[in-house]
Amino acid sequence: MEEREGEVRWDGLCSRDAATRAAALDNIRQAVLRRSETIVPPVPLTRAAEGLLVPAARDGLSEVLARLLMLAKRCPFPDVREKSEAILGGVQELGIRIPRPLGHGPSRFIPEKETIQVGNEDAMMHTLFADSFATLGRLDNVTLVMVFHPQYLESFLKTQHYLLQMDGPLPLHYRHYIGIMAAARHRCSYLVNLHVNDFLHVGGDPKWLNGLENAPQKLQNLGELNKMLAHRPWLITKEHIEQLLKTEENSWSLAELIHAVVLLTHYHSLASFTFGCGISPEIDCEGGHTFRPPSVSNYCICDITNGYHGVDEIHASPTGSIPVSMCLNKQSLSSTESVCEVEALMEKMKQLQECRDEEEASQEEMATRFEREKRESMFVCSSEDEESAPTRDVSRHFEDTSYGYKDFSRHGMHVPTFRVQDYSWEDHGYSLVNRLYPDVGQLLDEKFHIAYNLTYNTMAMHKDVDTSMLRRAIWNYIHCMFGIRYDDYDYGEINQLLDRSFKVYIKTVVCTPEKTTKRMYDSFWRQFEHSEKVHVNLLLVEARMQAELLYALRAITRYMT
């Protein structure tokens, strides 16, 4: 692609070589200042401070300045952060208003001071941040929340990199478009925005972004599978697979279909994580920054890196969150109750272990308990009226907007039982994926195992706790909602370990993530650390992804045999 004069090129910033980054930063500085000078002649900074700055709305300068703001806050390389801040300062001195962040940190649910601050990370986290930035050209908010669990994040980033950028059956622009289709099913504008940019960056046709009907017929044909995987995967049959593989010139190969299925399930479950952890818009995306002046008079460029965003957003938070100081009285009143909640949960775990050791339920009783839990899970729903985070309408990227899990649960339709002993990831799905899309089965298997087995042997303020029973209850409850049964598990344990508020949160995040609210997040495990709630979300992500994969891969296996 031929470089236009004055075009801002960002590629060199991803280099691990400081000299390459310095050269790229210098080119960016010159390009930005040239654009700035064409908009307004230089004016004294005193005039700028009096509010006479010119909004940077023309010539694409506002998008460039927003990206520089993101780099000043989020780049793992200190030289890039510092130079980006300096470039913004130079633009401000010309009399042009510069953007500032909206919101407070990578999550609307987790206070910024409790997340990892870029520049304060340890060596292992810095390596992960640098790898992510070098690969994607950004350090996104999902990464900044997942880094609570570095071992999982490393596996997640490696898998996502392979799916999106390494050799595989599908061309690069198809991969990002499928990501857009999958995220749009849950109206996840955060992920849609990221992949729209990536789709264009790898040469995707902008016309496809006007709606799914503008994409090739081959991708349109994937819409039905996308819809069922996202909302009712138990309905997928070998006939659906056959329809995709035998559609004349628009047919999919088996390898392409496996790649597409893994991408769809990856982004459905990542939408769950995005909503479940209240991921904020990226600083350089819509909703992540503003050019409006703050409601204080002494704001300056140094505030950007000091984390000061002005006071107006506290009162105009998109989630309606209350400042911490206003919550203190309520928090202190419920702290004793919350501590009792942790103690009670630990006591239940101990009693269940003792019961296990004393007697074992019959197979008939185990089957009855599963069916009861599966039936009850249909009617777990939130009674809240609170609005979830506002999202941009992305319905043009998918068909049949009324189709969803909600309709299924409301009508009490029966979900058939899927017995893991008949078709499992370990014995069937893993080998099928690895055969048709080499190495991906191994990457997914590693990610599933890390999420399932991850433990620090802590529960809230307690140490040296075996949490395996609780982790298994969460995983199996999610699979139970999808009709998936483990013959060797006593589903009576779920009701003992997961209270109603926790079940509401789990079901919402897994089945209708776009309806997740901060109140739901706050209402379960009130005495637990935010890192433990993020850990719960990792279990939700991987259990959901595996459930979707099991249904799709079983249908593909039946087609092949």
UniProtKB/TrEMBL annotation:
Keyword flag Cell inner membrane: no
Highest taxon of the lineage: Eukaryota
One GO term describing the cellular component: nucleus
GO molecular function, one term: L-leucine binding
Gene Ontology annotations of biological process type: cellular response to L-leucine; cellular response to leucine starvation; negative regulation of TORC1 signaling; positive regulation of macroautophagy; regulation of response to reactive oxygen species
Gene3D superfamilies xref list: AhpD-like (1.20.1290.10)
Keywords linked to the UniProt accession: Cytoplasm, Oxidoreductase
Catalytic activity: a hydroperoxide + L-cysteinyl-[protein] = S-hydroxy-L-cysteinyl-[protein] + an alcohol
Protein family (similarity comment): Belongs to the sestrin family.
Protein name: SESN1 protein
